[in-house]
Amino acid sequence: MFKKMKNLFRQYRDYIRVDLILYGVLLMMILVYLILTVLQVF
């Protein structure tokens, strides 16, 4: 039982890492888009 939980946690941890990377890229794209629109306005 404990071994199974450990394996599940290991797989889930990898998914969390991928999600964090994807969210980081998405946030950077949104920030760049906002900066570009602000520069175009001025």
What does this structure look like?
It is a single chain. The chain is mainly alpha-helical and 42 residues long. The chain has one domain. It has 1 helix and no strands. The chain is rod-shaped. The termini are far apart.
Helical amount? over 70%
Report the total helices.
Answer: 1
Number of strands: 0
Shape: rod-shaped
Low-confidence stretches: none
Could you state the oligomeric state of the chains shown? single chain
Largest sheet geometry: none
Helix/strand-derived category reads: mainly alpha
Give the H and E element order.
H
Key phrases:
single chain; 42 residues; mainly alpha; 1 helix; 95% helix; transmembrane; membrane
